[in-house]
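Dear Dr. K.,

Following up on our conversation at the group meeting, I've run the structure prediction for Translation initiation factor IF-1 from Ceratostigma willmottianum. I'm pasting the input sequence below exactly as I used it, so you can double-check it against your construct before we proceed with anything downstream. Let me know if the numbering doesn't match what you have in your notebook.
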Amino acid sequence: MKEEEKTVHEGLIIEAFPNAMFRVLLDNEDLILAYVSGKMRRGLIRVLVGDRVKVEVSRYDSTRGRIIYRLPDKDSSD
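The predicted structure tokens came back this morning:
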């Protein structure tokens, strides 16, 4: 069985909901509802409002997605 095709977009988290869902504004100006992937939960990676993230969006439902990566801050000096 072929795996579902997904597209990866970058975006900014603009709102957090109590059930671990987030409102994400993508770079192409789309607004989607996204949840944190299981690998990020197991790795205890925290996602907050204002973070830049990579989101995997299904081609069948472009209003929902899964956060797969938290991008590093540009102003942090590591």
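Two things stood out to me. The CA atoms of residues 8 and 56 lie 5 Å apart. The helical segments are 38-42.

Best regards,
J.T.
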